[in-house]
Amino acid sequence: MIADIHTVPDGAALEADLCIIGAGAAGIVLAREFLHSSLKVILLESGGFRRDTRVQSLYSGDSIGETYYQELHECRTRCFGGSTNCWAGICTPLNSIDFEARPWVPWSGWPVNSAELEPYLRRAHGICGRGPFLYDSRAWKLMRLPAGDFRPDRFQQFVWHFNNRDGGYRFGKRFRQELRGASNIHVFLHANATALVTDQSGRSVEQAVVRTFDGRTARVRAKIFVLASGAIENARILLASTSHYPSGLGNHRDLVGRFFQEHLQVPCGFLHVADPRSPAVQYSRLSKMGSAYCLPGLSLAPEMQKAHQTLNGSIAVDPFYDSEGAWIAFQKLRSDWKNGRLRGLAFRRLWTVVRDSPTLAPIAWRRLVHGERARGDSHRFVIYARAEQAPNPESRVFLTEERDPLGMRRACLDWRTSPLDRKAIRLMASLAAAEFTRVGLGHVTQAPWLSGEAWPADLVGGPHHMGTTRMSDDDSSGVVDRNCRVHGLDGLYLAGSSVFPTGGHANPTLTILALTLRLAEHLRSVFGDWSAASANSRGTRLQPDSQVPVVSEMP
């Protein structure tokens, strides 16, 4: 069932076994794991089926510290399907070294390892992808890419899967009917969870407070709550839940909101080739592997990371586009349209698109029909770096005194980078220059900014928000345990990349879904351990065929 929260009487109390807050990738996949089970699930989504400016404004907040490249309300999408509504379906897994405690990376190390996650990664791949579960050098062979003879102790070959051919990567559209037809799952739209409330002992979460723009309220009572609202909002809701803990839920060690991380994405050089038939052309394009479309990349070998004590990172050979040309103008115009910020520059960009339409048309055709990237200059390519950030407790999200229309304190981002963050990118640029020349790929010029101490103006993030409720074996270094349960609290779990201790260079969604599937398995065991008497101890429960699960009026 999917309904608007306004169909529920004002002041109602809703009951469920499991309440999931946030209907993005993690929230939807978690709910699907309980389809047609005996458990009653409520899934709360702040938005509707489409992006809405007023709902998006709830993400608004200040950004201090280093300049973040986007306004906070533009980073994520607040509607059913979450940010899968605007992503490109790009997947690749973290590397084994990303899970390790690296002595040169403070606060590194996960309580789980890559081997533990692999079965869930395979299932996550099946949810996102269509081709074989291959992400390493074997994929290059199946794609018949020139091997390049790159030294494996410098770079490791891998691929990104692009799962955007048929729209299946947009989870809100793909799984809507499935959730609508599930009698035991109740999805409520325009339902803003603004706080969580514990029992009198403060040891167990028992309610979620829900508010709407028009002042209506509701409460959800459940045995287990899962926050799946993104790294900023997960931290924000915990910090705003002060009914029993003045500093917020799970924040007794002052760790909620800290360790905010991004993926640092920036050009680090240019590859110049004389022959337009160079392998660089193939490296810059999507190639087919079975039914999947993949882009090749080179990740920094663990040997290099250890020898030079750097973070993880990767490079790709990307097309180079004229900054004043039709393709860049089209991309910026499209972004402005999606984000509702069409201004004077939009008309200039529109004119560029119209003027250069003979050039743009074949690019657009190959993109839409064959899934190809725009090709760009055949003699010049961008060496594009993607790298992780070191966990830094001073890079953080906290709450200001300003309140949003729901009365909830707004978030503020204090984003920090460090010299260690630049080290991997500098190393990769240097190695690319040496390796590309050695294998005869072409001549490399490194980006000028690498010789200085400042980041360039074109530094961006994923936006892949990570780390604000990090996972750890004990509460001295993290907010949730290895099963994603908040330390010291019963009935409260977190899903999404907010639990990542470190981010590697990989796009996070595949790992998010793997952790979500692992969480679902754990929750099934938790529910299975409770006796039937305990399961019915709250009295009246939701019935599978109920149209509106209103149990009682709020006291």
Question: Would you give an account of this structure?
Answer:
With 555 residues, this protein is an alpha/beta fold. It has a domain at 1-129 and 168-262 and 393-416 and 467-529: FAD/NAD(P)-binding domain, CATH 3.50.50.60. The chain is 27% helix and 22% strand. It contains 16 helices and 20 strands. The strands form three sheets. Strands 1, 2, 3, 7, 8, 9, 10, 19 and 20 form a nine-stranded mixed β-sheet that branches. Strands 5, 6, 11, 12, 13, 14, 15 and 18 form an eight-stranded antiparallel β-sheet that branches. Helix 1 links the parallel strand 2 (12-21) and strand 3. Helix 11 crosses helix 12 (344-355). The relative contact order is 0.20. The model is unreliable at 531-555 (pLDDT under 50).
Q: What is the CATH superfamily classification of the domain at 1-129 and 168-262 and 393-416 and 467-529?
A: FAD/NAD(P)-binding domain
Outline the low-pLDDT stretches. 531-555
What is Rg? 24 Å
Helix fraction, binned, reads 25-40%
Highest-level CATH class of the domain at 1-129 and 168-262 and 393-416 and 467-529 = Alpha Beta
**Beta content:** 15-25%
Overall average residue pLDDT: 87
The number of distinct helices, counting runs of at least 4 residues, comes to 16
What coarse outline follows from CA principal-axis ratios? globular
* End-to-end Cα distance: 26 Å
Indicate the structural class: alpha/beta
Outline the biggest β-sheet: 9 strands, mixed
CATH architecture of the domain at 1-129 and 168-262 and 393-416 and 467-529: 3-Layer(bba) Sandwich
- How many extended strands? 20
CATH topology of the domain at 1-129 and 168-262 and 393-416 and 467-529, which one? Answer: FAD/NAD(P)-binding domain
